[in-house]
Amino acid sequence: MNFVEELRWRGMIHDMMPGTEEQLSKEHTAAYVGIDPTADSLHIGHLVSIMMLKHFQIAGHKPIALIGGATGMIGDPSGKSEERNLLDEPTLRHNQECIKVQLQKFLDFNLESNSAEIVNNYDWMKEFSFLSFLRDVGKHLTVNYMMAKDSVKKRLDGGNGLSFTEFTYQLVQGYDFLHLNQAKNCKLQMGGSDQWGNITTGTELIRRKTGGEAFALTCPLITKADGGKFGKTESGNIWLDPEKTSPYQFYQFWLNCSDVDAEKYIKIFTLLDKETVEKLVAEQAEAAHLRPLQKALAKDITIRVHGENEYNQSLEASEILFGKGTTETLHKLNEATLLSVFEGVPQFEVSIAEVEAGISMPDFLAEKTTIFSSKGEARRMLKENGVAINKEKVGEDATINKSNLLNNKYILVQKGKKNYYLVIVK
RNA sequence: GGGGAGGUACCAGAGCGGUCAAAUGGGGCAGACUGUAAAUCUGUUGGCGCAGCCUUCGGAGGUUCGAAUCCUCCUCUCCCCA
Question: Out of A28, A105, A229, A383, which one is annotated catalytic?
């Protein structure tokens, strides 16, 4: 199965320039995707294009990850995007290094023929003078062409205006492609479907300026069945960095996907082959409550990103918290297990003296700890039967005292079904 | 530079002198149902010592018994014309 066929059955192709498939079967090709270096970690939103690179490399081609140090400073008008902050160079470099480490979990940087590579467009844009840019790049494309782009048209019609900077964005990104085309013989750019306009500006620029050939391939934007934004939770992005999103939370994110989404995601975010996926889908249809799809998806991607150990711990933690876990089993857990289960769960400290004296529920939840942001909110939730201590629902009038301690120093608080907090009593 | 419109809770958006802690929708959170799903239904969504009080409607003053609502100045945003 070639690269394009592979992506096709996985539902990862939204649009493709004619001739792309031929180019790839003709010779080994280099392709790139752009990544915004706005943080020192990737989040799962980045994963789609990284998986495209991964498949690309598996197919024997050369993947390039372009860190958008320069473009990130400008702000892509495609979709609504807020004004970006200028990153200073040390931050940029730091982010680039961190991202590289994470990319190594997906791409192979030590191959003889088609090693992955990382480049940063800041490196070639920073010395580029405005005049040279106008002469060497701006001259080759007409404003008419640029205005015909959907992303530009939308903003022009929207009544909100479009700054010159944003308008120019496509030229800068287009120049990246031209640069890589000349420097590294890169002939393909991939990205999300929202990037189509920007990518084609690049291919157009290459054609007009050098007469060379270049291609574009985009994947559909990842959506959720309920229309929500993919990869976001109440607490923000799902990061690959375990400091930002614990392996347990990471694992839970995938495990919690709806059935519809899981089937889509497993094709995109894992390398499981068609046969395996089809088997899992069949199993899901038969015994949906066992959620074979979600489990396989969560397992595969958690191991890839965090490793086998972390996966096993997350699995164990999930079983204790959601499975047969009761107050008794919690009391029976030894300290080491307890701590490893709750690694990555928000923690609070309360003094032993206060616990011995007894603390009222609203005080405990909103004052001694910040599990709730106000006592009113805590009370509300208590009334709604939404708070449990050590897996046992409690009411508004309950108090915290010594009998609630697990291993003499821990209290497990549960807000709703899925949010856990560990209070350490000292 | 001239003219116009407008800044209300997480967002969108009503309210235009008292009955406004502020309609409605979306989003969030929780409960029921379930499979840690989806859909649905219900509750809730400023703070507190919670039948009461305190702080909110861009900012600062003012009018009034009483202001999100009226007046003055400031400020920010957007649109149109030059």
Answer: A229
